[in-house]
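Internal tracking record. Fields below are filled automatically when a chain is submitted to the structure queue. Please do not edit lines marked as system-generated. If the sequence contains nonstandard residues, flag them in the REMARKS field before resubmitting.
Queue: standard
Priority: normal
Entity type: single polypeptide chain
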Amino acid sequence: MLLANAVLQGRYKVLAPVGQGGMGAVYRAADLRLRNEVALKETLFTDVAYRSAFEREAQILARLRHPALPRVIDHFSEGEGQFLVMEFIHGEDLEGRLRRLGKRFTSAEALPWILRWADQLLDVLTYLHTRPVPIVHHDIKPKNLKLSASYDVILLDFGLARGGLTYVSHHNPADETVTPHRKVYGFTPPYAPIEQMREEESDPRSDLYSLAATLYHLLSGQLPTDAMTRMSRMFNQQPDPLRPIGELAPHVPEALERWLHRSLSLTVEGRSSSAREMRTELQEIRNQLQLRPNADARPPTPRTAEEEALIAPLAPAAPSIAPVAQARLGSSAALTPFAPPTMVGSVLRTFNVGSPARAITFSHDGQRLAVGCEDRTISIYQLHESAAERILKGHTSSVRSLRFNNDDTLLISASDDETVRLWQTTSWRSLRYLRVPGCSVECIALSHSGDLLAVGGWGTAITLCKIENAQIDVLDMLPSSFIQALAFSPDDLTLASGCYDGSV
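SYSTEM-GENERATED OUTPUT FOLLOWS
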């Protein structure tokens, strides 16, 4: 273990250890140059192939940009250790929260929150699994999930992540050990699928099993039976020892129980085909049962002795759960019936784009609608037609922002594949594209004059471009980071940026 106050690379001062495993440790440290806190993740190995793999893996992780992921800032080797420098995430992990809150966490009160976090995790898994080099996390569990100040979930610990090669340890909650192999895999038994335990080839659907096992634990308070035990029992023609979650947590609706059981299938083929499909299924269940947190609510927290004395004579607080979920719980459960808001307006037309929509924009003449999707495509619709006029392909990751230029001759699209593309609206050909290295583009803004384009995302700068005669040229780089929204003032003299850190 590194000693407190040790300084690495003349820049990173160790403050305290955060955790230790078989192949390294994680430390809270101070970045003396930027004056902020970071996490130092140390991995120890001397094999040349592993050291080379570490560097390639670090480069892959450093390019990731997603609200549910900590940002990788730097990587280096010093002594026998290889280090990742990451954004330090303050707060409590879900394992500690579950242990501390006990039954309050595994109650109907927490159910909408747990499903909200599941939705966020499936969003980030879709992002990871669809990268140009797909990344499988391989160690999703409550210990690796933290809550941000806004109660959003953050996925941590990419020690087991596979973006090609891997150099990890086998984790056992009771006794952390290392089993070295040329091709090393890792797992935490209660959450790992059978193919991971057998050291078979990596599959994104392995993460789906781990997520389902994590949800099983969070919803019931009990660890799921590990996959190897389940396989062994079933091989010997004995019943599956995994108890239905409805027996352990009666507040879990039947539709959710079926979805979770399918996701815990021992065969890869028995699970959803992708994180995107699994997320769509979950969204349908949440919409059907109205299992969503109240807008102003917070996740369950411990009560003080004074609070317990005050509320003892009263029924426990209830989440917003629809009558269909209430029927599963029984009449004795104290629930607040779901009251839908008054509907205003009517649906004119529905377009089936076939993939979660990430960006949408009208042409200025009001005749066309462009929809950017997670499946990397852009669908163009004439408003009086149900079928898409054209499906545009070219981006290699989800489309995050779209804009028509002032005369509708160009469509501008931005993607987290680090590119911005110009499409000609007469032929729908991709005319030009701008690559923004190291910046997964999240948003764009077009000036009112139509000749300036601002590009922002999960990089360290806003790129200011000039668009003229279907050309796109970089004019300037404005220092800023984690941009999620951009807007020009009416006179185009001011550009406003909205940042992930809560600043504008």
